[in-house]
Amino acid sequence: MLADGIGVIIASRILKCPLPQRVTGFEFVSRLLESGRSFYLYGSKPGVADAAAENLRAKGVNVVGARHGYFDDDSEVINDINEKKPNILLVCLGAPKQEKWIAANKHRLNVNLCTGVGSTLDIMAGNVRRAPTFIQKWGIEWLYRAIVQPSRIPRLAAIPRFLLGVRRESSRRKKAEKIRQNSII
């Protein structure tokens, strides 16, 4: 999992394990594309993965396959992925769906790396623009995305719930540690 979302960054601070920096799916994939490996693009709406593949191929990237994320039967896409033998599978189904899909299917995939990278295909297809650099640096890309894509607002509501859960878990751990220390004395 990448330290992409602002929730993960804030959670790392709450848990006193601050991450050195945020790494977005797009930035991670941009670096991977320079590796000379082969790629399979899976996810997003119909046409998006194909458009992203076309754009990447025009830049010399070895994209061996692309499929949108709207399937009832995972076997079809998994068979296609395994048949095309990519080194790297980029899964863009949105969180947490992409992470759940990877966890459920990783044992069936013959790839070296399988990673969830959110809206990366939409950006690579040219359908979504990234926030200006200063907004990215300030850590408020989530706000920019909510403004330009209001349909994302319900998903953003999960961030405070997630952080509340992290805060509760942090408090529970502190109490357990205090009890443990008191029982040693």
Describe what you observe in this structure:
The protein has ten helices and four strands; from the N terminus they run ααβαβαβαβααααα. By secondary structure, the protein is of the alpha/beta class. The protein has a single domain, classed as Rossmann fold (3-Layer(aba) Sandwich). Strand 3, helix 5 and strand 4 form a beta-alpha-beta unit. The mean pLDDT is 91.
CATH architecture: 3-Layer(aba) Sandwich
Principal-axis shape equals globular
CATH class, anyone?
A: Alpha Beta
Taking strands numbered 1, 2, ... along the chain, how are they ordered across the largest sheet?
2-1-3-4
What's a concise summary of this model?
The chain is 54% helix and 11% strand.
Main attributes?
185 residues, single chain, four-stranded parallel sheet, Rossmann fold, globular, alpha/beta
Explain the layout of strands and helices.
Blueprint: H1 6-14, H2 25-32, E1 38-43, H3 48-58, E2 62-67, H4 74-84, E3 88-92, H5 97-105, E4 113-116, H6 120-125, H7 133-138, H8 141-148, H9 153-156, H10 158-184
Helix pairs in contact: 1-10
